[in-house]
Amino acid sequence: MSASADRRDLHDEAAEWFVRSRGPGWSALDAARLEAWLAADPRHRASFDGVARSWDATAEAAASPGVRALRSEALAATRTARRRLLSWVGLAAAMLTLAVLGAGVLSSLRLAAPEPGVQVYRTEVGERATVTLADGSQATLNTASELAVEYTRSRRGLRLVAGEAWFDVAKNPDRPFVVTAGAHSVTATGTSFNVRIAPGGMHVAVTEGRVMVAAADQTRLASVGAGQRADIRGGALRLFGAGPHGGDWRTGRLQFDTVTLSDAVAEMNRYRRTPIVLDDPGLGGLRVSGVFEAGEASGFVDALPLTHPIRVTRSAQAVHIAWRGADKRSSGM
Q1: How confident is the model at residue 85 (pLDDT cuts 50, 70, 90)?
Q2: Which of 141, 64, 53 is nearest to 105 (CA)?
Q3: What's CA 113's distance to the chain center, in Å?
Q4: Taking the CA atoms of the chain, what radius of gyration do you get in angstroms?
């Protein structure tokens, strides 16, 4: 192998280590392996430091207005690029995209409008996207979500077509901010709240200010304030305090506080392409607590056998959870 080819291979390896160290699922064991690789050869650390310097320089460039304008075009190529191992030659071009990807987070993704005046934003499974709207409000889309935006002079209209979104609303009492999801709507003038589509209705959680929830016929169901969560199904609405999934999904983490395993699995599967399957319905009653990363490499599946009488088997199609032996005790985690 020539010296130049050897340098390219070393740069490829350093680039892979660097990107992995800033991605989801990075563990203490991974960090130890990286340190061992760096210590094995002075050229390893030099290559790794070179990648880090390139990253920092590219991050500065990413803040420029011109680059921000090009991000949506760069993101269109992200799905293809992420399926390949980053090479040193491609790393500089990929840096701008990775700078906004972070741990699987997209900065903004705009699709062709289905009709004039409407902008559509969509995320795939495992992706999240933050969109800055024309009035300065922000919408953060969770995994597998779609949002259509249509602003008029008198109304800021949005339609959550699928999934879940968090809204930080710029204050404007004269121009209501209205999010519709199925047969219901949420109206605010300036606040922060979350909307998630559910079978036959939706879930709304408010962290700041107050929103008004209404049915399809414009019948007002309830006013929901900061610290409250509302579950809406048809014409019925129930108010709660903090919900069972208390973690902020915008950080890429999910928190479970003694929820059933069936509920926890359903939540984790929203972020996975390879689903988790309970082989026995009786497993669903086990209780789960903890904070886990969303996605395939969350640690959730690996943690279960440590605290529950279960075993885990994996295939290309699914991750199966079954009882361990004949032991069917319920336990907490």
Answers
A1: very low
A2: 141
A3: 23
A4: 23
Residue 277 CA: distances (Å) to CA of 32, 124, 126, 283, 333: 32, 21, 18, 10, 19
CB 197 within 8 A of CB 181: yes
The structure tokens listed for 44 are 């390893």
Query: What residues form DSSP beta bridges with 121?
Result: 110, 147
Name the nearest CA neighbour of 306 among 318, 282, 319, 288: 288
Q: How many helices (H) and strands (E) does the chain have?
A: 8, 21
Written as six digits, the tokens of 88 are 């040193």
Which are the contacts of 135, defined by CB distance < 8 A and separation ≥ 6? 151, 156, 170, 172, 175
Q: If we measure between CA atoms, which residue out of 278, 262, 261, 288 comes closest to residue 319?
A: 278
Strand partners, 149: 119, 158
Per-residue pLDDT tens over the stretch 319-333: 999 998 755 554 445
**What confidence tens digit (pLDDT) does each residue in 286-330 have?**
998 888 888 887 788 888 888 889 999 999 899 999 998 755 554
What tens digit of pLDDT does each residue of 67-81 get? 444 444 444 444 444
